[in-house]
Each structure stands twice: as C-alpha cells, then as structure tokens.
TrEMBL record:
Superkingdom of the organism of origin: Bacteria
Gene expressing this chain: argF
UniProt entry keywords in alphabetical sequence: Cytoplasm, Transferase
MF terms (GO), sorted A to Z: ornithine carbamoyltransferase activity
Predominant location: cytoplasm
Role summary: Reversibly catalyzes the transfer of the carbamoyl group from carbamoyl phosphate (CP) to the N(epsilon) atom of ornithine (ORN) to produce L-citrulline.
Entry-linked PANTHER family: ORNITHINE CARBAMOYLTRANSFERASE, ORNITHINE CARBAMOYLTRANSFERASE, MITOCHONDRIAL
Family: Belongs to the aspartate/ornithine carbamoyltransferase superfamily. OTCase family.
Catalytic activity: carbamoyl phosphate + L-ornithine = L-citrulline + phosphate + H(+)
Annotated compartments: Cytoplasm
Record InterPro entries: Asp/Orn_carbamoyltranf_P-bd (IPR006132), Asp/Orn_carbamoylTrfase (IPR006130), Asp/Orn_carbamoylTrfase_sf (IPR036901), Asp_carbamoyltransf_Asp/Orn-bd (IPR006131), Orn/put_carbamltrans (IPR002292), OTCase_ArgI (IPR024904)
Pfam families for this protein: OTCace (PF00185), OTCace_N (PF02729)
Protein name: Ornithine carbamoyltransferase
C-alpha cells in the first residue's frame, strides 16, 4: 500500500483498505515499541505542529511519534504564529513546506486545513477541525479491533451532539469499515443530511448501516461500543452550556445505558471527559448548573468496560502510522 505524499484530512478521502492498512500498521508499530525496538527510519526529517486550539493527546502523540522515528518537531501554539492573522493560510503553507517534511494542523473550519493542504508541497495532517477528527478515528478503530477482534459488523453507538467533529467522523469511519453506526441524540443534534446521505452511499458498498434515533433504550440495545464526547466543544460560546446540559442529559452514558447494551459492550471517549467535574471548569459547571457528571458518569468511565485510556495511548501509535505511511518510511 503506497500512501506516500498523501494528505490526511478526513477519512472520506481514504478507501476501507487504506484505513485498515493504517490501523494494522499502527498495531505493528505498537508491538515494535512494546518490544523495545527503536525506530530510526526518519532521521533528518522535521514536522511542524500547528495548534490554533489547545491539546494534550494530539500534540503529545505527534511529538512522541515523531521523536520515536528520529524526526524533529516544531510546535506552533495558538498564539505563537502569524497563521491566518497576519499571514494567509496559502503563504504559511508555502513557507512551511520549504522547511518541513509534514505539517499537522488543529483549528477551526475544515476549509482551513484544506487550504493549507492545497498550497503545501508536503503532507498535511488534520489534528482536529470543527467538522472532522480523523486521527482520533484510527485510534478508535485500533482500540475496537484490539478489544473485539474485528471491525466489520461491530455496532457502535454515539451518544450526544452528533453534528460535530466526533459524531461526523465516527459515522464516516463506521460506514467505511462496514460497521453499524447509530447516532443517539435529540433530532436537532443529528449529523447533517448531506453527510448522512454520503455515509449511506458508502454503507451500501461496505455492508454498514446508519441509524439516527432519539430513543436511548432501542438505540443502545446490544451495542458493542458506546461512544460519547463533551457536550460543548472547543471554540463554542459559553452561552450554549445551559441548553446542551438540558437537552443532552437524557443521553448521558450511565450504568443503565451500559447494562442495556450488555456485558460485551465497551465504553470509550476521545477525551478530555467531564465525568466527575473535579477540574477547574468542571467545578464551575457544577456550581452554575448543579450537576456532578455530564456526558458520562464516573462509574462508567472508571468501569471495567471502559477502554478510554487504551484509545488515548493508541492516538500515538496511529499518528505514528499516518506519518510513517505518508512520509514514505
Ligand atoms: N482527543 C483529543 O484530541 O485530545 P486533545 O484535545 O487533548 O488533543
Ligand atoms: N468535540 C471535541 C473533541 C475534542 C477532542 C472538541 O472539538 O472540542
């Protein structure tokens, strides 16, 4: 499989075989790292990591993965570059691709990372936009494969706001890999009709199914994977907290939901998660809205069914696979 020179902007651009190849490459890179094998395939290469929004996992995953393969990294933080403010995306892309071998971008609209890729001569990797989070999908798929042994036919239910990066990306990933995707949310939080139609088209080819439902009990019954994400994403205004909590609380992942799915089900989350509201922002939410848990309960998050930290670790192995494949090592 030759992915050298390709951008990684959304899973829509990749075939099921290419996605499976990246997941399996990540599994082998993970096994090699666990066996103590030091990767030295890419000494002399350098990557730029642009973050217009904050990050723990994605930044660390790119840095550790790059360093494991002998590459240098330059981190451009939300305030530390001219990108999009003083200098256009097109000019930034042309400057960075004269210096670096690959560029990661985390930010706002998908059109920004698309523009960056258009003007860049080196691979551009999407580290999260409002619309998509494709590197997270590879980590999800690897984690599901590790725990359930396969992808095809797996029933994955996404609970909460399915209009944003995580809901969109999970629906695409499931459609591509022949999985059964359910968005379980109030109607107003269903993914947009155009993307649903695209995924239904893909699903016809792969044997996947796409279901949108407001009904928690029928939606989650027999699920193999229950997935959720924060109810308010980075970049959204504080004013939306109140309505999100009111409208999405019935879609909280709690023990009743996990019991309804069954003992075979795993729970996962892209993280960060509001499961106990003990963080600084969590405490403010607790005081303001009188709640102690949000998108998932602490009980579920800490349960034996939870694989959230496996998925977090897999961010690094899968991002390493994306860089190795697209840089051609
Ligand atoms: N899941 C994820 O993208 O985490 P970060 O925001 O910490 O990178
Ligand atoms: N939907 C979340 C995902 C974080 C990884 C956000 O965009 O903030």
């Amino acid at each position: 499989m030759d992915l050298k020179g390709r951008d990684f902007l959304t899973l829509k651009d990749f075939t099921p075989e290419e996605i499976e190849y990246l997941v399996d490459l990540a599994a082998s890179l993970k096994a090699r790292k666990k066996a103590g094998i030091v990767e030295r395939d890419m000494r002399g290469k350098n990557v730029a990591l642009i973050f217009e929004k904050t990050s723990t996992r994605t930044r660390c995953a790119f840095e550790v993965a790059a360093h494991d393969m002998g590459m240098g990294t330059t981190y451009l933080d939300p305030s530390g570059s001219q990108i999009g403010k003083k200098e256009s995306i097109a000019d930034t892309a042309r400057v960075l691709s004269r210096m670096f071998d690959g560029i990661e971008y985390r930010g706002f609209g998908q059109e920004i990372v698309e523009e960056l890729a258009k003007y860049s001569d080196v691979p551009v990797w999407n580290g999260l936009t409002n619309e998509y989070h494709p590197t997270q999908m590879l980590a999800t798929l690897l984690t599901v494969k590790e725990h359930l042994g396969h992808l095809k036919g797996v029933k994955l239910v996404y609970m909460g706001d399915a209009r944003y990066n995580m809901g969109n990306s999970l629906m695409i990933a499931c459609a591509k890999m022949g999985m059964h995707f359910t968005a379980c949310a109030p109607k107003a939080y269903f993914p947009n009709a155009e993307l649903v139609a695209y995924c239904e088209g893909v699903a016809k080819e792969t044997g996947a199914t796409i279901t949108l439902t407001e009904d928690v009990m029928s939606g989650t019954r027999g699920a193999d994977v229950i997935y959720t994400d924060v109810w308010v994403s980075m970049g959204e205004p504080d004013e939306v907290w109140e309505s999100r909590i009111r409208e999405l609380m019935p879609y909280q992942v709690n023990k009743k939901v996990m019991d309804n799915a069954g003992p075979q089900a795993i729970f996962t989350h892209c993280l960060p998660a509001f499961h106990d509201l003990k963080t600084k922002i969590g405490k403010q939410i607790q005081e303001k809205f009188g709640i102690t848990e949000m998108e998932c309960t602490d009980e579920v998050f800490e349960s034996a069914q939870s694989v959230v930290f496996d998925e977090a670790e897999n961010r690094m192995h899968t991002i390493k696979a994306v860089m190795a494949a697209t840089l051609g090592a």
